[in-house]
Amino acid sequence: MCGGAGTRLRPLTFKHPKPSIPILNKPSVRHLIEHLSREGFNEIVMTLGYMGERIEEQLGDGHMFGVHIDYVYEKEKLGTAGGIKNAEKYLKDEPFIVLGGDHVLNLDLREMYRFHEANDAPVTIGLLSIDDPREFGIADMDINNRIHRFLEKPKAGQIFSNLASTGIYVCSPSIFEWIPEGKKYDFAKDLFPFMLAADKKINGVLVRGQWTDVGSSAAYRQAQRWMLDALPGTTIEGNFTTRNARIKGPLSIGNNVCIGSNSSLVGPIVIGENTTIGDNVLIGPYSVIGSNCTIEDNAKILSSYLFDNVSIGKGSNISGGVVADDTTIGEHCFLENGTVIGHKVLIGSNSTIHSGVKIWPEVVIDKDSSIKETVINSDYDAAHEGS
Ligand SMILES: CC(=O)N[C@H]1[C@@H](OP(=O)(O)O)O[C@H](CO)[C@@H](O)[C@@H]1O
């Protein structure tokens, strides 16, 4: 399911649909497809909405990942179950697994699929214990895996379980009977309550391992961290030139990267291609830098993510920020923790962007600014209204 507009991830989703936001410099959905391929799920159907063409362009027919991908576009918003109904012709022959295109995970999906095949419920929901499940659907499950209650986004007094739905479902084609065609219909809000009221069986399975949906910038940071932690040992890949930088892996680096003298890189770090790093630059653990970036002398990049074509001026400090494509940050700027800067932004020298501030695309910030609140570009809001 790749249809969502990713409103909570703005300004990043003005340029990339959620499944295309880069994780370790690759669209996040590519990691998901590669995981599915490794697990032996090789027939994939993607339901597309907001900026769907971008996703199709990036993945093609899937043969590069050892899978076959079919695409189904939604002309109007159909909700999660309605979107699956719209793809029924590809799904009607055998049980299938439903995932969000923005899921980042390391779960044994085969185990879940086998459980579904061995039991007789038309739907099996993947459940995870979560401390604060208010952002999720919660389920009450008995010892035989049968779900008796399900509540979407419970309020503080309504939490009867800490078992949260991952939004990963294994479904038998028989569910199509209960989903109306061409109409907005949701698994969590419509289908599950209908099934429970009609005494139809819904099973749950407890999944183990890493799972998040990249819905918010906090979840996005978490997902990048997991993937950086999974980089193998001290690997240094790709070819780069340096005079006397100090480099500590794990580091994954693209071709044609140039690192100046006396710079220090402490992994895990991923760097794309054709990026130039000046002298006396510090790049700290959990940083990802895209391709064609320029980082000038004496800059510091600490657990931050720079997309492609980003320039960071001399002596600037990016600490726990995300900077989208084609953005230029002047000299001696400071981006505090949790800042998210959209694409094609210009930040004048000696400016401070305070903690948690977001800056919409194509905004120009004057030099010597101190920005404490989100800066919106109303052209973008208007163009994306209702999406
Ligand atoms: C209406 C709906 O589909 N809700 C799902 C879905 O919520 P979103 O807020 O739409 O991401 O994904 C959650 C898992 O991330 C799941 O717990 C919840 O039940």
From TrEMBL:
GO terms for molecular function: isomerase activity; nucleotidyltransferase activity. CDD domains: LbH_G1P_AT_C_like, NTP_transferase. Residues 1-225 form the Nucleotidyl transferase domain. Its main location: cytoplasm. It comes from the Archaea. Keywords: Cytoplasm, Initiation factor, Isomerase, Nucleotidyltransferase, Protein biosynthesis, Transferase. Residues 255-353 form the EIF2B subunit epsilon/gamma LbH domain. InterPro entries: LbH_EIF2B3/5, Mannose-1P_guanyltransferase, NTP_transferase_dom, Nucleotide-diphossugar_trans, Trimer_LpxA-like_sf. PANTHER family: SUGAR-1-PHOSPHATE GUANYL TRANSFERASE. This is Bifunctional protein GlmU. It comes from Methanosarcina barkeri MS. The lineage of its organism: Archaea, Methanobacteriati, Methanobacteriota, Stenosarchaea group, Methanomicrobia.
